[in-house]
Design brief:
With 353 residues, the chain is of the alpha/beta class. The chain is 41% helix and 12% strand. It has an eight-stranded parallel barrel with strand order 3-4-5-6-7-8-9-10, surrounded by six helices. Helix 5 (131-143) links the parallel strand 6 (117-122) and strand 7. Helix 6 packs parallel to helix 7. The longest helix is centred in the C-terminal third of the chain and has 18 residues, at 246-263.
Length: 353
């Protein structure tokens, strides 16, 4: 397992990061088995574990806490978690305000059973909260020793630039990392997010490298897709090959699978090696649910792609192209709130005359 420095923090992390979203009610509800998977990952040389408060409503953090109960394992593990999404019913139970983040960090520390979090990430942008307030409270939490470094997750390039500008102007501590979706089928972040991260010396840990299973080998052209269970049941429009726009994904998967076979690796191994080949990427998050899945993902940890293979990939999916949009990607309020794109009715009527 190779290691790289995380965003100028001096913290060395493995190029594979163990994502724990699948531990708990939404994936593997067996706590003891989930702990065994985490221990197996650590024993294979992974020293970076990523979770979030909202994964199975805190259950994932509790499982990670059990896995790192041994002080030696905790000391040797770089532990990352995230906050932003609502935790429970009622107002003021989510977002990036000082009020909520102060509580969210304390709650995460309790569930994780630890005195500190190595990397705390804000899970999505919050249009309701000034970024100055968010950076201010994160800096205070870092000064208190509750978090060692902090970053952002799934922020568009312009939000990252604004955050760094505000930090410089106000003398605040800044985001050290970004966690975006990135895969062979979702290369959009190559246009701006990754270059911006490089410009600011940020570490990058990417999620969804297998594109919700499209690069896992399960969904192939000409094979029937069961839309009644798993991810296809949640988002059938992404997986139904008869729908417009999906044909390009299935065609690309066939070409990428053929390329993987040609160079003597599996499609998932090719997918993970591609992500870690980008100079801006520090670590790729893998999210196994079982020990068997972990073993399969670890097989390609030492694979390095040469320029000829990367050129072939560029021909199949051109740089900066998104053939697939990862689940849960943040969309700016200007797109989700129609009132921000339309003048008031009275103003339009007056203009029309």
């Amino acid at each position: 397992m190779r290691h790289r420095v995380l965003g100028g923090t001096g913290i060395e992390v493995s190029t594979y990061c163990l994502g724990t979203m699948m531990f708990g009610a939404v994936g593997n509800p067996d706590h003891a088995d989930s702990v065994r998977v985490i221990h197996a990952a650590l024993d294979h040389g992974i020293n970076f574990v990523d979770t979030a408060d909202m994964y199975s409503t805190g259950e994932s953090e509790e499982i990670v806490g059990k896995a790192l109960r041994d002080p030696r394992r905790r000391a040797e593990t770089v532990l990352a978690t995230k906050g932003y999404f609502p935790m429970g019913e009622g107002p003021a139970r989510g977002g990036l305000s000082r009020r909520w983040l102060t509580r969210a960090v304390e709650d995460s520390l309790t569930r994780l059973g630890t005195d500190w979090i190595d990397l705390y990430q804000v899970h999505r942008p919050d249009p309701r909260t000034n970024i100055e307030e968010t950076l201010s409270v994160l800096g205070d939490l870092q000064a208190q020793g509750k978090i060692r470094a902090f970053g952002c997750s799934t922020f568009p390039a312009e939000e990252i630039v604004e955050a760094h500008a505000v930090a410089e102007r106000r003398g605040l501590r800044r985001f050290r990392t970004e966690q975006p979706p990135y895969s062979l089928l979702a290369r959009g972040i190559e246009t701006a997010v990754l270059p911006v991260a490089q410009r600011y010396g940020m570490g990058v840990l990417t999620w969804s490298p297998l594109a919700s299973g499209f690069l896992g080998g399960k969904y192939r052209k000409g094979r029937p897709v069961d839309l009644s269970g798993g991810r296809p049941a949640l988002t059938p429009h992404r997986f139904d090959p008869s729908l417009p726009g999906n044909a390009a994904k299935f065609d690309a998967v066939e070409q990428l699978a053929a390329l993987a076979e040609e160079i003597g690796c599996s499609l998932p191994e090719l997918a993970l090696a591609f992500v870690t080949a980008h100079p801006a990427v520090t670590s790729v998050i893998i999210g196994p649910r079982t020990g068997e899945q972990l073993e399969g993902l670890l097989k390609g940890a030492s694979l390095v792609l040469d320029d000829d293979v990367l050129d072939r990939i560029d021909e199949i999916v051109p740089p900066g192209t998104d053939l697939y949009r990862a689940d849960g990607v943040w969309r700016p309020q200007a797109l989700t709130d129609a009132s921000l794109r339309r003048r008031p009715t009275a103003d339009r009527a007056a203009a029309a005359g």
